[in-house]
Amino acid sequence: MLWFFLWVMWFVLLFRVIGDIFRDDTLGGGAKAGWTVFVCVLPFLGVFVYLMARGRGMGERDVRQMQRQEEAFRSYVQEAAAETPATGATRATHADALAKLAGLHDHGDITDAEYERAKEKVLAG
Predict the structure, then answer these.
(1) pLDDT, tens digit, for every residue of 98-119?
(2) pTM for the full model?
(3) Which of 40, 55, 91, 125 has its CA at a distance of 20 to 30 angstroms from the CA of residue 62?
(4) How far apart are CA 119 and CA 61, in angstroms?
(5) What gap in Å lies between CA 93 and CA 12, rounded to an integer?
């Protein structure tokens, strides 16, 4: 069981390194190709050298990517919540919008204040 776990963990690490190589905007095409060949030809050595040489940047790139995704999601939610329904909208449209807002609020995607503002806009529209 331990060997199986280590084998799976190794593949997860290998794929994270390869994904990071292609996600890094500071590397040029030749450097990406070189690291990819190094990691594929000598996988153990390549992954460990990559982690030693670029491991810190790998974590920073992950954090930046998560922050960009969070910002994009929050701006989408705020835009969707700020839109007023079209004139002549039915109660079902309001109910659907309120249900979506409640789901976002329950999952912690929007704050209490954002939820209340969006709810007021939906009910006023």
Answers:
(1) 888 888 888 777 888 888 888 8
(2) 0.53
(3) 40
(4) 36
(5) 44
